Here is the input.
Amino acid sequence: MSAPTRNEPGLTRKEEMTVSGAAMSGAPWKMAGGAGVVVTGADLIFHAVGGHLAVSSSVSAGIVALFAVAGAGALWRARSGRAMQWARNHPWRFALLPGLAAAVLVFVLSVVVGSSGVFGGVFTSVWHGAVAYGVTGLAGTVAGSRRRRPA
Here is the structure.
């Protein structure tokens, strides 16, 4: 599916997710993976210094970093295409995909590995997804304002 331009009618939520997925295919995944590993490692070190090892929460922080950097990097890259044009014109709608992806992975991680249970997992995943959503949307807004400035 190709992404519509600004002049075309609105998209359904499913179409927005499809277009966002196409835009995320241009994300800098190696850099995002590196950011996730660094954040996870740093969080593990901070927990170890504090006297306890919290692997689940450290990996959750790394997941947020992974999707936030991937989403922001996709928006900041110089790649073109209709999906990227749509994502840059609608950064907060685009940011739903990285936010939802982070929330789903954190939920599964916190329920399977962590000891938070279903309700704790929902709470944890919602705020982790909100952070990924906010960072990605903010980066897209800043990237859009940078591109619209007159030279």
User: Anything to note?
Assistant: The CA atoms of residues 71 and 136 lie 6 Å apart. The radius of gyration is 17 Å. DSSP finds seven helices and no strands in the chain. Residues 13-145 form one domain.
